[in-house]
Amino acid sequence: MTRRIDDYALIGDLQTAALVGRDGSIDWLCLPRFDSAACFAALLGDEDNGHWRIAPTGAGTCTSRRYAEDSLVLETLWETRTGTVRVTDFMPQRDRAPDLVRIVEGVSGRVEMSAVLRLRFDYGSIVPWVRRSDGHRVAVAGPDAVWLRSEPPVKTWGQQYATCSAFTVTAGERVAFVLTWHPSHERRPPLVDPFEALEHALADWRAWTARCAYRGPYRSAVVRSLITLKALTYAPTGGIVAAPTTSLPEEIGGVRNWDYRACWLRDSSLTLGALLAAGYTDEAAAWRDWLLRSVAGDPADLQIMYGPAGERRLPETSLPWLRGYADSAPVRTGNAAVDQFQLDVYGEVMDSLYLAREAGIPPERHAWNLQLSLLGFLESHWRDPDEGLWEVRGPRRHFTHSKVMAWVAADRAVRTLEADPTLPGEPDRWRALRDEIHAEVCARAYDPVRNTFTQSYGSAELDAATLLIPRVGFLPPHDPRVVGTVDAVRAGLTHRGFLRRYSPDSGAVDGLPGREGTFLVCSFWLADALRMTGREDEARELFERLVGLTNDVGLLAEEYDPVSGRHLGNFPQAFSHIGLVGTALALPGDETAG
User: Across residues 513-518, what is the average pLDDT?
Assistant: First the structure.
């Protein structure tokens, strides 16, 4: 039976991540990077596509689980008729090679344990050759090599192309398993001490979460969201992937299945704002630097997303040997949206760099010249239709949000020059551009009969992205057009208490069959808009319902189906957790430190 998306917990080492089910099975892991091929792909197929389960013999789902303290160290507890056992899963921050550590500890009584490891390289398509070496198991195929060892050693054997083991733990006994990857042409990396690694991991996370400036009533949810954002950070570059997974469906059984293991510019300003507000200036600076490196070059070549190290080639392909999560096919790697023209990213880049400068992050000398180049391109192309924030695969349109973000780009240029007149630039020129865009949006994207901004020029459709109009400063919150838009979007796009991105009947707009769930970050935007328009009690009530959607370990997917009560889309989703942090820190009456 397919596990629910929200049945999974996340562990990782700030370069890749794994998903651990309630039954003790790791069903997704890409090595050595977030966007590498998976060696455990049962999440998108079945157990023969790779997984690693450690659990009491004959047991099903666990009794309970939690993250140890404020960390990314997962503790799973089973209470059986013969005793209680705890499995601790984590990935140490690597020096060189990625390690996955699983420590089995007897809590009481005596518990028989079983472990089954099925390694399948290249997204479940390659069965490696497994042999013994120095008392360990080593699996090799092509460029990949994985070593498995236990401390103390336990008996292992091969069965049905899997490595199996059985052992017993009593109260106080600990058995550690360590899985280590390295390129097959290199020597095995140095062995990690699993018990020392656990202590270091807990200490590192304690030190990191202690830096959180937020001290309000939602601190637990905020800290968990910040840990999740940190876990989705590719440490060598500072890039933050949208999610660690690919092809988890927005509709069960449908085709809306995308690879989110890349870094989107659309997230940049919201990510920076959340990190800065929570006190994580170093992470914000690293994200800013990733952004500058990634977008450097011809402004006409600006992409909406890049790889974790700034890679530009992200070709979309399908993996036909994987049936897809709950038979939701195709399974895709890469993302064809990388080739789309999305006007809004120019505004998001400009806003991000403006936020960084305002926060006191020392500006890079070349950054302003890059911004001037982006503005020069925008000046000639802001009137062009585009695919928009939601990456529609239908015809290009004049999306309202895209035009608003073009206004943001010009506005942030003006503000930057006003704050620092020594910078080169033409403030009058950018003011004129800003005013021209503003006038056109108000004339062509606003429906005076319904008193709302619409999804695109001349359209009757609504769009949750128009809720960002007051947030980015395009119009003040109490402007009647803003209030009318909030009311219209809330009435027209709410589905059982949560918000859709746009109408579920917009197939002609997004060019795709089927429907999707409610989009969680949009519901956070609605809470923000309600707060900004003076409806603070309604904003808090919605926010608390959203926090209530987190799974048992505090994680959110991209979407939520309020009918089935299931999470949908890639998991966990950075955009959803960014929304949670941003709304929590903005709610009135909550104090932050510092």
Answer: 87
| HSE-CB of 331 using CA atoms within 13 angstroms | 20
Q: Can you spell out the DSSP letters for 435-476?
A: HHHHHHHHHHSEETTTTEE-SBTT----BGGGGGTTTTTSS-
Q: Which residues pair with 559 in a beta bridge?
A: 519, 568
* Token reading at 335: 């993302």
Q: How is residue 195 written in tokens? A: 């018990």
What is the token pair recorded at 469? 């109009």
Residue 554 has pLDDT above 70, yes or no: yes
The β-bridge partners of 333 are: 317
Nearest Cα residue to 576 out of 535, 532, 518, 536:
518
**How does pLDDT run across 398-436, given as a tens digit for each residue?**
999 999 999 999 999 999 999 999 999 999 999 999 999
Q: Is the pLDDT at 61 greater than 90, yes or no? A: yes
d(CA 215, CA 201): 24
- Residues in contact with 318: Cβ distance below 8 Å, sequence separation at least 6, in sequence order: 329, 330, 331, 332, 333
pLDDT digits (tens, 9 = 90+) for 222-255: 999 999 999 999 999 999 999 999 999 999 999 9
